[in-house]
Specification:
Blueprint lengths: L2 E4 L5 H12 L3 E6 L13 E5 L5 H11 L4 E4 L14 H29 L2 E6 L12 H21 L4 E8 L6 H5 L12 H11 L7 H13 L6 E4 L1 H9 L1
Parallel strand pairs: 1-2, 1-4, 2-3, 4-5, 5-6, 6-7
Helix pairs in contact: 1-7, 2-3, 3-4
Length: about 240
């Protein structure tokens, strides 16, 4: 029986992905900042660990406790929606600490075991914003685009050890992205950008083209199908953006 470690399992994509792998008889190590076992079905194949991807000691403890794993899914992330001019560099660094450096740090922590076993796969969940530039998302897009470049380059290093890298690129989803992003919109929208921002928000509309299940299925494909492409868009809107690009 194989084992997957998934980050950011408290809601949305991570939670659904953990359920998806459990349903298919994988051992699942579901991690989140504040563990809540009630979020997932009771199973002898499930372990719920505390993990803060921005904390080196937290990463070390989680990886040690997990033991050998076959796949790592870097899903933990935080959102940011707003005007760059009004975004403090402290907020910029916060976004990169989780979305980019956290992904890199956890990947680095599991690579020794993958290299030694000559097997393993790392799936990095990014975003469809890397497929098409969008306004008011410059910092968030940069943090995710950096992960894309990191993944593509690292794949060239790890191929010799039979270790695969993959990217799953979700589209817009009714998850907690906006809720998580709102506290970081310090200063709101500057007056000079008000009209533009209103137009952008109106164009976004209430609809979303990606469900958490779409992402879970894409992650499953990335992990279990060695012939799958490195970049897998998840959700109808992400697929359309990938095809248009």
């Amino acid at each position: 029986m194989k084992t997957v470690l998934i980050t950011g399992c408290s809601s949305g994509f991570g939670l659904e992905t953990a359920r998806y792998f459990l349903d298919r008889n994988w051992k699942v190590i579901a991690t989140m900042r504040k563990p809540d076992e009630a979020l997932l079905p009771r199973s002898e194949y499930l372990k719920v660990f505390s993990l803060d991807v921005t904390d080196a000691e937290s990463i070390r403890q989680a990886v040690d406790a997990a033991g050998p794993i076959d796949a790592l899914v870097n899903n933990a992330g935080i959102g940011l929606l707003g005007v760059f001019e009004a975004t403090t560099m402290a907020i910029v660094r916060e976004i990169f600490e989780t979305n980019t450096f956290g992904t890199m740090a956890l990947t680095q922590a599991v690579l020794p075991q993958f290299r030694q076993r000559q097997a393993g796969v790392v799936v990095n969940v990014t975003s469809s914003v890397t497929l098409m530039p969008l306004p008011l998302l410059s910092v968030y897009t940069a943090s995710k685009a950096a992960v894309t470049a990191f993944t593509q380059s690292l794949a060239l290093e790890l191929g010799q050890f039979n270790v695969r890298m993959a990217l799953v690129e979700p589209g817009r989803s009714p998850t907690r992205f906006a809720e998580n992003a709102r506290p970081r919109m310090q200063g709101g929208i500057p007056d000079a950008y008000a009209g533009f921002s209103e137009t952008v928000f109106a164009s976004m509309g209430p609809s979303a083209g990606t469900e958490p299940l779409d992402v879970a299925q894409a992650v499953w494909r990335a992990v279990t199908d060695s012939a799958s492409p490195m970049r897998i868009p998840a959700g109808a809107d992400a697929i359309a953006m990938a095809e248009a690009g």
